[in-house]
Amino acid sequence: MQAILLSREEVGKRARELYENGIRQQVETDENIGKMVIIDIETGEYAVDELGIESAHFLRKKNPLARLFGIRIGYKVAVSFNGYLERDTK
Fold first, then answer.
1. Distance CA 52, CA 70 (A)
2. 14: helix, coil or strand?
3. b/e burial code for range 74-86 (CB count within 10 A of at least 16 → b)
4. 3-state secondary structure (DSSP) of residue 2
5. To the nearest whole number, what is the mean pLDDT of the chain?
6. What is the DSSP pairing of strand 68-72 with strand 36-40?
7. Phi/psi-derived region of residue 38, left when phi > 0, alpha when psi is between -120 and 50, beta in every other case
C-alpha cells in the first residue's frame, strides 16, 4: 500500500478531528490530565502514557509506518518552551 504524503498541518488536523470525535471522551479523565495521548492518524488507534514515548513505541510495533501525533490531555499545547502550559477549557 502506497502512503499518501500529508503536510504537518494536515496530520495535525486529522489527529485533532479524531481526538475531538471520540478519543477525548475516552481519555480525558482526572488521572490522565497532563499525560500524552499518541494517535495513529490512519487507523484511529491511540495509547496514553506520561511522556508519549511508550505509547509511540507500542503503536510503532503494531504498524512500523504509522503516522503518529501527540496531544497533551487537558491542555492546548503538548509542550511549552517558556514553562507555561495553558489548560483547555472544553
1. 7
2. helix
3. bbeeeeeeeeeee
4. coil
5. 89
6. antiparallel
7. beta
Binned at pLDDT 50, 70 and 90, residue 88 comes out as confident
44: left (phi over 0), alpha (psi -120 to 50) or beta: left
Question: Do residues 52 and 38 touch, judged by C-beta distance below 8 A?
Answer: yes
Under DSSP, is residue 82 helix (H, G, I), strand (E, B) or coil?
Answer: coil
28-44, pLDDT tens digit by residue?
A: 999 999 999 999 999 99
Q: What is the DSSP string of 19-76?
A: IIIIIHHHH-SGGGTT-EEEEETTT--EEEESSSHHHHHHHHHH-TT--EEEEETTBS
